[in-house]
Amino acid sequence: MLLLDRAAALRITPIWRLGFRPFFLAGALFAMVAIGLWSVILAGLLPAWQPPGGVLAWHRIEMPFGFGLAIVAGFLLTAVQTWTGRPGLSGRPLAGLFALWCLGRLAWFVSMPLALLVVLQLGFAFALAGVLARQIFISRQKHNYPIPVVLGLIGLGQALSLYGLAVQDVDLQRRGVLAALWLIAALMGIIGGRVIPFFTQRGLGRTEPFTPRPWQNWLALACTLLIAASMAAGQGLVARPIWAVLFLLVAGVQILQLVRWYDHGIWRVPLLWSLHIAFAWLIVAALGMAAWHLGLLEQQSLVTHTLAVGAMGGLILAMIARVTLGHTGRPLQPPRAISWAFAALHLGAACRVLLAPFSSHALWLAAALWCLAFALFVKDYAPMLWRARVDGNPG
């Protein structure tokens, strides 16, 4: 039976053998194209294109729900196979789910009823949540139950944002997007809390594993879910000192974790320092929101981009660079250019957050560095993603 399963898996075109392959490649390409297009629009070079709700609505919705969810899908559809011991989505079902993601992205550029755009957009988020829920709940993986729940909540955040688009309410759009961003931060806390210490131990050859501290992960998750709920309800968009407490708790827990995981040896390993810096951006974002609620910071959008560019973008690039190597049977030695990609992304995040308030040129520089980072990834990793594993195994 195992031989038959192996033979069947090897007959599948490599790009459709596991979820990380199409979604990592398409997500990285989309990251380049979407931010490149956004830059062109900001420069006034594409005035004719007016998607539903305007170009700001497109940018605001597509970065978390188009780019972010694509990479989340690729990682989780691959990881769930290891977690549950059950075959992951592959072949035609995987191609169908990927096609649904593509249709959601293309819908903005084709004249169609707004209701159809909403259906295509929401279809992917809830289909992904359903696929993962089925795998995890059937296997009774209780410690993974929060993952499909958070994915479902991200879908509800997208629904709120799209409802705001339909009724032309910018406030509802923002509420849905910001809630989803902090739900993605919750996933980053869950996944990062597992893989960063594990990857650090493996990458540095440590014999003793890091001791898990589940209470820290559960506390950070609970606080982040409350933050997302406050954003969706609109309460978190009004500066109130009481809300600063939640952000300080999240920051405090994640600081404790990052300090515990730290080893000076990470600076010799690009696949490690990139993960640690990205996780540090998550802490900066939580501290920034606390400062905003306490009246110590004026622009909430700076904190949003700290989370979206530095934390989400940084963790995504670091994860797809490492996971792709491991799941294509290659040694964990990335191409030399990927170190420059990591540096470009984090420098771009610093430009967007620290320099943009003082110069509009920082926006263009941040966008250029973001595009460069993902272009470097695509250049070296695209062949790995569409070709078969180098060790001859399926996957």
Characterize the structure shown.
The mean pLDDT is 93. Helix 6 runs antiparallel to helix 7 (170-204) and helix 7 packs antiparallel against helix 8 (214-233). The chain is mostly helical. 48% of the residues are buried. The longest helix is centred in the middle third of the chain and has 35 residues, at 170-204. Helix content is 75%, strand content 0%. The protein has a single domain, classed as Cytochrome C Oxidase, Chain A. It is globular and about 55 Å long. Pfam families: NnrS.
Write the layout of secondary structure elements.
Elements: H1 2-11, H2 20-42, H3 55-84, H4 91-106, H5 114-138, H6 146-166, H7 170-204, H8 214-233, H9 241-261, H10 270-293, H11 300-327, H12 337-355, H13 361-386
Helix pairs in contact: 2-3, 2-11, 2-13, 3-5, 3-7, 3-11, 4-5, 5-6, 6-7, 7-8, 7-10, 7-11, 8-9, 9-10, 10-11, 10-12, 11-12, 11-13, 12-13
Using the 3D structure, state the CATH architecture: Up-down Bundle
- What's the overall average pLDDT, rounded? 93
Q: Helical proportion?
A: over 70%
Number of domains: 1
Structural class: mainly alpha
CATH topology term: Cytochrome C Oxidase, Chain A
Basic shape: globular
> Radius of gyration, rounded?
20 Å
Main beta sheet: strand number and arrangement?
Answer: none
Question: In percent terms, what proportion of residues is strand?
Answer: under 5%
Tell me the span between the first and last alpha carbons. 17 Å
Task: Count the DSSP helices.
Answer: 13
Helix and strand element order:
HHHHHHHHHHHHH
Number of strands: 0
* Low-pLDDT windows of residues: none
What is the CATH superfamily? Cytochrome c oxidase-like, subunit I domain
CATH class: Mainly Alpha
Protein name: Short-chain dehydrogenase
Keywords: Membrane, Transmembrane, Transmembrane helix
InterPro entries: NnrS (IPR010266)
Transmembrane segments: 20-45, 65-84, 91-108, 114-133, 145-165, 177-197, 218-236, 242-259, 271-294, 306-325, 337-355, 361-378
